[in-house]
Predict the 3D structure of the following.
Amino acid sequence: MNAHSQQQPWYRQASAAMRRHVYLKGIGTTLFIGLFFGAYFYLLKDPAYPATVMPVTLLDRLIGFQPQALPIYISLWVYVSLPPALLATRRQLYGYGMAMALTCLAALAVFYFWPTAVPAANIDWSLYSDLEFLKSMDAAGNACPSLHVATAVFSAVWLHRLLRNFSAPQWMLFINWIWCTGIVYSTLATRQHVAVDVLAGLALGLLGAYLSLRYRKCPARYPESGAKPLADGFAGGTD
């Protein structure tokens, strides 16, 4: 790495990566989310078998209902857009999208063959209009594994790797994991999931992220950013 690259602040490196393939990232992320929701709601209404109600554990009883956690829950859709925004080449983007898609497909296959539902909570949802709308859309199905948790954890692992690649300060890495933890916690606090769903989602997200980072290689550096290579990142050219 040359002296100029070494002197570049991490945020300039990240900014250079974010400016590449902006339209591909925007359109691709939007299409991915749209296709995901189409498949998700289809399976919600037409699974192969009747839904199994998930058990309530001690952890579920310890975490009280907190409607104020809803904004953190919804922030997932911003959070999952960050890793692809920080990738610099088309090949990296395609590889990342494929890895995320396979992680989601694994959960969707479980939803189809083993549909699950969150147990009904003793809450008057009419007192919480935003959550009532969310409940009416999600219908308490497709519970285990929690894809909300799986995609958050998958994104967190990738963000951690990308931020380290840019030599970001420790406080940025800390914020990344605090945000992810908040999203995971919000699934319990809003009663969208129970602890068993969350644990299964954690396992799926970690496995998907590990495999996607473990078995692919990366180019020498991000073009125009000066960033160090991802040790086990995606292969890609300079395009």
Q: What stands out?
A: The chain is about 60% helix and 0% strand. Residues 121 and 191 are 7 Å apart (CA to CA). The mean pLDDT is 85. The longest helix spans residues 22-45.
